[in-house]
Backbone:
């Protein structure tokens, strides 16, 4: 009975939040004279009604699974790693270095090296904030945000001045300027896409879809993260420090060491978030490398109530919204930014919904006890 | 170091100062406001629109009200529903980004910039403007800069010398005691956060209308967060916030002049952020946070 009610709570709050966000979106669309019913019909029809859309959703969800899991680890630790944003970019750049710098390796060795480079780059970018947190008491929120801004400039410098691909040919007739990007990754560093796998079950994916094996790596990682948090001594220490630092310290847990390990673990996972774009879609790191996976990861983690399984559901939902937004913009003329608004309203309303439901359950229980 | 340099530093420090004062009002009432950045963004857009459509005075009003409305969401979420203050702030920053982009497309038919706006007529400081070497500093000053400077002693006065200020601070230090003494804890927190939003909106309006002459996406560049750092460096006091903001203003003014062939400009762009880290690393241990900062208050303490 109790378990059933808890499950109900886990499902009701996200539904309330999504419902409320849809409502806010409708008001905004009405305000600009668009028809919300039509827009939502397009959003769902376009994103769920076509096989290329489904594959595109999986592609768009992949980076968010990693950034969401990175947030879960930091939230469970009681830390707020807003730096996932900068960390995944530095990680993707480091991965690109390993991707075009090393040559002649078989893919089976090269791909893991590229992924390890991504994790290492992100961990490097997280080292200073966690050092400042523990040694100097600097709140990780401000320090990681500063590191995000420093990352934008630093990567810009690395791209424009140090690793610019100077072999690019100019546009037709020698016009235009070369893209500000790194050289291309070696073929052995490219993550295989799922075309062959889908073809094996009789589905031909269009060539412009890039969903890759990183999706499965993300799902496997979700299982690992769940296991680490709930089934290992480290996970126990992590939860203990987050819930009651002094008690954990009294029990002999070295909370500083646990914090450092958890923060670096969070960063390492973040370092994988940019790889889906790097190793499949682009094949190089360029100045317009996709941003905001870090911030969306926060939303996905909150939506998934800080559980690894919830992150996967949240990432798929965000992937669907992003794909649907493309259809909405093209077919109804409503700017795709309406989705960004929906997503941020979702973050707020999900936490509010939990508070409302928790209060409701509490009063119900009091009534039961009273009767 | 000449007066022109000082004038440039003063202009650069104004948005940081306003953001620091905004953060201070909120945190003194016990609510952490990471959403300052978003309130600045929305203030910079509505300030630009108000000024573009009706003139600078309306720009100022639009900017402040827009910041205040976003802050109202933060207040309801954190005070009434006890949402984690950082979570709410981060959500508002994302909301502000999406909303301004959306509005910019709808109002100005482009995603990332507004039309040119009208700024306030600049002022010359009487008497001082006759002293030759001070000229760049005291002539053609934006009235918003003067307003920001006036807000420093004014904030000090209200916080430290009025009943309202005392109550607001008591709520940030010990809400239970304040409640016991009959202070309306929730009302005081709402007041702190709303004032904070209006000031952050003003900071954004200064950036777009007074400093740049138009709204451009990403123009706040983390100044909301740097304002928070200035607030901490200034130990949650208006005068301290002014000092810290001037430090950041100087750093930016120097970095603009320091453009050289030796140091790549990307590293010069990092200076404000690196300075923020350095400043926080140096001072946080001796800073005194309001005791109940960031903590939800619940009557009956369940």
Residues:
């Amino acid at each position: 009975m109790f378990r059933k009610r808890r499950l109900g709570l886990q499902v009701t709050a996200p539904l309330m939040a999504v419902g409320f966000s849809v409502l806010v979106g409708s008001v905004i669309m009405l305000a600009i004279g668009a028809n919300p019913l039509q827009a939502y019909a397009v959003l769902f029809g376009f994103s769920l009604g076509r096989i290329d859309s489904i594959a595109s959703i999986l592609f768009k969800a992949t980076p968010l699974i990693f950034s969401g899991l990175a947030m879960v680890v930091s939230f469970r630790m009681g830390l707020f790693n807003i730096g996932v944003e900068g960390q995944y970019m530095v990680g993707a750049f480091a991965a690109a270095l390993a991707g075009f710098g090393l040559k002649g390796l078989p893919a089976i060795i090269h791909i893991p090296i590229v992924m390890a480079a991504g994790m290492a780059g992100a961990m490097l970018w997280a080292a200073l904030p966690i050092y400042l947190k523990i040694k100097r008491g600097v709140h990780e929120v401000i320090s990681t945000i500063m590191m995000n801004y420093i990352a934008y400039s630093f990567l810009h410098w690395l791209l424009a001045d140090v690793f610019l691909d100077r072999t690019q040919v100019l546009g037709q007739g020698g016009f235009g300027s070369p893209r500000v990007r790194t050289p291309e990754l070696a073929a052995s560093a490219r993550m295989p896409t799922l075309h062959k796998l889908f073809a094996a079950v009789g589905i031909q994916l269009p060539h412009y879809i890039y969903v890759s094996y990183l999706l499965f790596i993300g799902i496997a990682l979700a299982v690992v993260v769940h296991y680490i948090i709930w089934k290992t001594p480290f996970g126990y220490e992590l939860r203990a420090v987050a819930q009651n630092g002094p008690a954990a310290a009294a029990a002999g847990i070295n909370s500083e060491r646990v914090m450092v390990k958890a923060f670096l673990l969070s960063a390492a996972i973040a370092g994988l978030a940019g790889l889906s774009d790097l190793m499949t879609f682009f094949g190089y790191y360029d100045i317009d490398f996709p941003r905001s996976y870090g911030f969306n990861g926060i939303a996905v983690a909150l939506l998934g109530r800080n559980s690894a399984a919830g992150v996967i559901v949240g990432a798929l939902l965000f992937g669907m919204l992003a794909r649907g937004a493309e259809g909405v913009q093209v077919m109804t003329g409503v700017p795709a930014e309406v989705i960004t608004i929906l997503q941020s309203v979702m973050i707020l309303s999900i936490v509010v919904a939990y508070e409302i439901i928790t209060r409701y359950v509490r009063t119900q229980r009091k009534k039961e006890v009273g009767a | 170091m000449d007066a022109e340099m000082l004038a440039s530093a003063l202009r650069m420090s104004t948005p940081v100062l306003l953001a620091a004062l905004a953060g201070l009002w909120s945190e003194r009432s016990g609510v952490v406001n990471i959403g300052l950045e978003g309130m600045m963004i929305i203030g910079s857009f509505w300030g630009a629109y108000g000024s573009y459509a009706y003139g600078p005075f309306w720009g100022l009003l639009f900017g402040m009200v827009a910041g205040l409305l976003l802050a109202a969401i933060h207040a309801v979420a954190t005070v009434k529903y006890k949402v984690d203050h950082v979570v709410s702030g981060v959500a508002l920053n994302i909301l502000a980004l999406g909303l301004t982009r959306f509005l910019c497309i709808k109002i100005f038919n482009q995603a990332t910039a507004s039309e040119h706006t009208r700024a306030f007529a600049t002022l010359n400081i009487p008497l001082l403007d006759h002293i030759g070497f001070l000229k760049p500093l005291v002539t053609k000053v934006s009235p918003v800069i003067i307003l920001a400077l006036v807000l420093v002693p004014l904030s000090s006065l209200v916080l430290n010398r009025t009943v309202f200020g005392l109550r607001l601070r008591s709520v940030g230090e010990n809400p239970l005691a304040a409640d016991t003494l009959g202070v309306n804890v929730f009302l005081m927190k709402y007041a702190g956060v709303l004032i904070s939003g209006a000031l952050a909106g003003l900071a954004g309006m200064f950036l777009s209308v007074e400093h740049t002459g138009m709204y451009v996406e990403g123009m706040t560049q983390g100044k909301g967060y740097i304002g928070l750092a200035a607030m901490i460096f200034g130990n949650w006091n208006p005068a301290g916030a002014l000092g810290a903001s001037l430090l950041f203003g100087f750093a930016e003014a120097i970095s603009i002049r320091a453009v050289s062939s030796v140091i790549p400009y990307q590293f010069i762009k990092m200076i404000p952020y690196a300075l923020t880290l350095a400043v926080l690393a140096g001072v946080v241990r001796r800073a005194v946070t309001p005791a109940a900062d960031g903590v939800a208050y619940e009557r009956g303490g369940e």
